[in-house]
Design a protein that fits this description.
Elements: H1 5-12, H2 15-29, H3 34-38, H4 49-59, H5 62-78
Amino acid sequence: MGSLAPAADWLCLAAAPAFALMALLTGVLDGSSPDLLCSTSRSSPWSGMAVMYALMSLFHTVPWLRLISGRCRQSQWRT
């Protein structure tokens, strides 16, 4: 099981870019929202899949921040 740990570390880094790409593609390619056809009230600009993917991307940046902060600490000790 010890050999799977590095793969899991790198896999957690894939979530934020994947969700960011999904948010971008959904925002660009989703020209019309089906919710507008089914609802009589105006929908909020914050209630869409692109916003959900953007928030998920934001919440999954923690592994990237840990990686960056670890590199910053290592470079401080080298200089």
